[in-house]
Design goal:
The chain contains three helices and 16 strands. It is mainly beta. It comes from Pedobacter caeni.
């Protein structure tokens, strides 16, 4: 089976049609029209981190709620996106993209899932499509040889990151979607195989794909539009 790896990665500061910026969205688990701050969080689910606690969370207050509001602070004419990475190992996906990920081997024991209501400040629903938030707590690192002898050390936004230009699977396995824990790869899905890549490109809107070997360059220069324009030769 084909083992060519591709990275699904969006430069989150770039505005795309039908896609909110991550700075313009907020998760809430509760709404009360009689409160001054109508949207709020009752549980402590946002304070949980997989590195310091068992996954999935044992205590109810740390579990991701089965339903969340995703408040869009700025108006969008229409909601078009299929994948929006929130950071903190939380990925927002359309039902269609979620079904695609599951079809190609996403491990359902590796994440918690919340159904989302995309709303404005008045709790008006902004989309009839189904969206989910996936919070990952288990990762696919054991499937990969990172070839750390050729790793690239860089700083992005003042944070030291390590990137792996020779990343490859240790052996072929019957799945084509992977998630890694490393901070430089926190905001990506890894896709295996040209056929799966072409299926994703044909079906979904606003997702950029790069060869895994090229990703270190893309990640290093993601904020430099002169070196890496929005439309660039590294896009697949």
């Amino acid at each position: 089976m084909e083992q060519q790896l591709y990275i699904a990665f969006n430069r989150h500061y770039l505005k795309r049609k039908g896609t909110p910026l991550t700075d313009d969205i907020v998760f809430f688990d509760s709404y009360d029209p009689n409160k001054r701050s109508k949207f709020f969080n009752e549980s402590e689910w946002r304070t949980y981190h997989h590195s310091s606690s068992p996954f999935p969370p044992i205590e109810a207050k740390f579990k991701m709620p089965s339903k969340l509001y995703l408040l869009l602070k700025k108006k969008e004419k229409e909601i078009l996106f299929d994948y929006l990475d929130y950071g903190f190992h939380i990925k927002i996906v359309s039902k269609e993209f979620y079904d695609f990920l599951c079809k190609h081997g996403l491990d359902k024991n590796s994440y918690e899932k919340s159904k989302l209501d995309l709303v404005d400040k008045d709790r008006s629903k902004l989309s009839n499509r189904t969206y989910y938030a996936l919070r990952f707590g288990k990762f696919d690192n054991d499937h990969f040889d990172f070839h750390k002898e050729s790793k690239i050390r860089t700083k992005v936004n003042g944070s030291t990151q390590y990137l792996y230009q020779d990343l490859e699977l240790k052996q072929d396995i019957d799945k084509a979607v992977f998630v890694l824990v490393e901070s430089a790869y926190e905001r990506v899905f890894i896709i295996k195989g040209q056929k799966v890549l072409e299926e994703a490109k044909k079906q979904f809107i606003g997702i950029d794909f790069y060869d895994a070997h090229d990703f270190p360059f893309v990640f290093q220069h993601q904020y430099d539009d002169d070196i890496l324009p929005i439309v660039n030769s590294y896009l697949k």
